[in-house]
Amino acid sequence: MQKSRGAFMTYPLLGFALVVVLLEVGFLGTGNHRNSEAAHNHIFSTTKVQAKTAKLHLTAREKSVSRNYHLTKLQTRTASKIHLTAIGDSVMVDVKPNIKHVFPHSAVSGSVGRQFYSLPGIVRQLKATGHLARYVVINLGTNGPPTQADINSVLKTVGKERQIFWINTRVPRKWQNTTNHLIKKTAKKHANVHVVNWYKASKGHAGWFASDRVHVDLTGAVYYTHTLAKEISEDLN
Questions:
Q1: Residue 58 has pLDDT above 50, yes or no
Q2: Residue 209: its pLDDT value, please?
Q3: What gap in Å lies between CA 234 and CA 165, rounded to an integer?
Q4: Which residues are known to be catalytic?
Q5: Which of 139, 204, 145 lies closest to 174, judged by CA?
Q6: How many Å apart are CA 185 and CA 168, to the nearest integer?
Q7: Are the C-beta atoms of residues 140 and 168 closer than 8 Å to each other?
Q8: For a disulfide at 146, which of 44, 116, 152, 220, Cβ 3.0-4.6 Å?
Q9: Three-point CA angle 160, 164, 169, nearest 5°
């Protein structure tokens, strides 16, 4: 009887171990499935972009833009077709000719010293007069961080049907990280807000900037516009 009872006690332990193994396999299977699904989506997206690119035949002007701004055919064509409203500060003044070149259907407004608190009124006026495009580019934060109230006001006016491409900032001031954090936070909460990561793209490229390390030189203006065009193309395609 003692031996039989000992054998009986062994089976629940074996059963428990089997359940643990099955659960672990199940969890691993779920992880593998998720990884497989992510890989499949990436492959599908890449194939889709390649198919679009294969059909493109750039014009002479587009070929020049592609070459000068280091853009792919799809990035170039996307930029040449969409209608943009770009609003910014003195950095936008620096890059205005470049943006107009790459995005021929764009209206660009830059002003020295402009801060984010002026944007709600600008956006309301543009919308009221029918001049707010479907794609809105924001370059504000160089001169100080935005407030949440002003961000909310802009988002409400722009609406969910338009796409916002908000360029973050590289500025040697205490509000740089605050500004960039707010931009990232806003993009996470709103599907139609996209971060254009100039801060990351310009890392290690001091030669792209003027002596104040804020405004861009001619080379910096090219790469600033490249970063914008690349992000827009990736989000729209």
A1: yes
A2: 97
A3: 12
A4: 90, 212, 215
A5: 145
A6: 12
A7: no
A8: 116
A9: 145
> How is residue 23 written in tokens?
């659960």
Taking the C-alpha atoms of residue 230 and residue 27, their distance in angstroms, rounded to an integer, is 38
Tokens of residue 189, six digits: 């909460």
- Token pair listed for 93: 């003044």
User: Which of the four pLDDT bands, split at 50, 70 and 90, describes residue 53?
Assistant: confident
Phi, psi angle pair for 17, to nearest 5°:
-60, -40
Q: Two tokens at 142?
A: 């160089």
52 band by pLDDT with thresholds 50, 70 and 90? confident
Say how far apart CA 236 and CA 4 lie, in whole Å: 70
CB 215 within 8 A of CB 94: yes
Please tell me whether the overall predicted TM-score, pTM, comes out greater than 0.70 for this model.
yes
Structural tokens at position 154: 């802009």
Distance CA 48, CA 68 (A): 26
Any bridge partners for residue 109, and if so which?
87
